[in-house]
Amino acid sequence: MTNRGHRELIRSVVGYPRDMIGVKLLGEPFVVGEKAFEMRSYVDLRSPLKEGVLKEFVERDFEVARNFVGHVIGNLNPGGEEEVCVIVGVPARASNINKDLLVKVFREFTDVVQLISEPFLVAYSQGTLVNCLVIDIGAGTVDICALKGAMPGEKSQVTVNRAGNFVDARLEALIVETYPGVQTNRYIVCKLKEEHGYVGQAEAQIIADFRADGKPVSYDITEAVGTACEMLLPGITEGVERLIRTVSPEDQETMLQNIFVAGGGSRIKGIDQFIADALGDYGDVGVTCVKDPTYAVAMGALKLASELPPQYWEQLGSVTDY
Question: pTM of the entire structure?
Answer without folding.
Answer: 0.84
